[in-house]
Amino acid sequence: AMFEGPLVLANAVRLARMAQALQVPVFGTEQNPDKLGEAMPELRTALSDCQARILAKMSFSACPDGLADWLRPPQRAAGVGGNARSLPKHLQKAAPPPDRPQRNSIVIAGCEAHVCLLQTALELLEQEFEVWVVTDACASRTERSRDAAFDRLAGNGAELALLEWLSLVNITEPTKDAWGPVLIVVYVISQLSSTYLMTPAMQSKAQRWMIMVLPIVFLPFILGFPSGLMIYWLTTNLWTTGQGIVTRRQMPKPVIPPKRSSRTPPKDAGESPPTPTSGEPQDDGGSRAGPPRRVKRKRGGGARR
Question: How many CA atoms lie less than 13 Å away from 58 in the CB half-sphere?
């Protein structure tokens, strides 16, 4: 059994999932799978999901069995013959590009750390690769063996890292790279919510819709901005959204005044209608205000209104 085996296996699976999300090529190795068996089923599933190439090796180091060729394919030999060297530079043909891209930075994890991983990493360092060892995704049978392997790797130039370090966002990268699309989606949602909460209620619907559409219109322009600037905008929007929620909860609801019609008599602000005294007749609401109407009587005794 490996020291902290379940934790190391979970971190190795997370490392494969992270590489799949970032579209980083993944390579796996198995030591004599016919006799010692294949990788754990959980890790096998994660490697299959990210379309990893599996190398069956017989040596402790994976480089003699072809791992270095997978990482850095050999260059094609330039054609020899003729007088190509005597031609001017602008007439010489450029060297053909390699069949596969070369990768000089390698992130490595596995077990046992003091045997297979150590020998593979040391040989990659000799071939001038930049090797990053994910320490919390490596294991040995004993803690002392694992730590001794880390000490030797660090002394030979390998970089020791944690899985959490690799999952952090590089704020100098453009927003469209790595975790940038996730930041863009969260930024748009936070911008829309902050705009909705901070927009005055008396603003017209056309103005509100115009302000709500602006974050989407600016998307093509912010794709080349650094991720750090996007994180700054995102935190500002979240702070503004929180302010809007607290302000709306603490402010009293506005009182809507009653509708007034043309028949409503004018009423001065701050004045209340006079209350009748005990000796004055009270208006029951049916009588009409003003002087009494005069009625003209006809000669024949009839009344005309």
Answer: 2
| Cα–Cα distances in angstroms (integers) from residue 155 to residues 104, 127, 148, 161, 304, in the given order | 19, 16, 11, 14, 122
Q: Which residues pair with 105 in a beta bridge?
A: 130
3-class DSSP assignment, residue 215: helix
Amino acid at 160: L
DSSP string, 28-39: EEEESHHHH---
Per-residue pLDDT of the chain (305 residues; tens, 9 = 90+): 889 889 999 999 999 988 888 788 899 999 988 888 888 889 989 988 888 899 999 999 999 988 888 887 655 554 444 445 555 555 655 655 555 556 688 999 999 999 999 999 999 999 889 999 999 999 999 999 999 999 999 999 999 999 887 776 566 666 766 666 777 788 888 877 777 776 655 467 777 777 778 777 877 777 777 777 777 888 888 887 887 788 777 777 767 777 766 666 665 545 555 555 555 555 554 555 556 666 666 665 555 54
Spatial separation of the C-alpha atoms in residues 154 and 305, rounded to whole Å:
115
Question: Cβ atoms within 10 A of the Cβ of 72, count?
Answer: 19
Task: Give the bridge partners for 174, in sequence order.
Answer: 226
Query: How many residues in total does the chain contain?
Result: 305
Across the chain, how many H-helices and E-strands are there? 11, 7
* Assigned token pair, 304: 């005309």
Task: Report the distance separating Cα 189 and Cα 177, nearest Å.
Answer: 19
Characterize the bridge pairing of strands 130-134 and 159-161.
parallel
